[in-house]
Amino acid sequence: MYLEKILALLAAALVAIGAGVGLTWMAIHPASRLAGADALTSLDKGGARQQIETLIAATPDYARYFARLRETFTTDYEAAINDFAARLAQTKEEQSVDYYLSEAVRRVRTSHGALAAKAEPEPIARVFEKQLEVLQAVAREDKRMCVAFLYGATNLDFQRFAASRRQIVADMALAGLEAIISGQANKIERAAPTEADFRVLENALTARGLDKVEIDALLDGKMPVPPLEDARMCGAGQTYFEVLKTLPEPARTKVYGLALELMARS
What we know:
By secondary structure, the chain is mainly alpha-helical. Helices cover 76% and strands 2% of the residues. A two-stranded antiparallel ribbon has the order 1-2.
């Protein structure tokens, strides 16, 4: 039962953020607008591709991700850009550059995400460091949005946040890609974390000041009744990520690796 509750934590809280739920939400619910009147009649797939790649190149933070994707997973890059271009040419609806990043991240995670769990410890740790940076930035913006993001319930507010914080969003996306690249090259097999590893995590959360109500809220993946205040729950989520960094090896990387495997299936 204890292990099942900890796995619920990983699935509900860690995966919610780690999988880039905000990015995935934008990929599923893109903001679009009709292209100009001339484009409605003249835009073909080649022109659409050029338009998309120009838009990406004009956004340096995201261009870093796409350049690395083209370098390391060329087939995936070509498939994504070609699909974006075909859609634009057919519908004449322009998507935001934030959508193109989020959809590219989703596609790569779906096809190659499990490789990240086989990466070297450093790129794995960087994935979670960058996720914490995004969560902290969300928390500074809006505590309610922070809690929603922690539980995977992102919305248009997160889209606006991402568009105004492109550097850290791109850093998070690129960290995930680098972990996949490392995993493909190294293919490190790790044992699953044990119940003892997870007990170390819970004890560390307690030592950092989280009480039973807060820990149970994280472990169960749902709010208590009555719910905790947004600021309190948002702070607990950040503490959770901070505590993960302090776990001793090899427990830390085993927990991270399990989380990355779950992310790939989310």
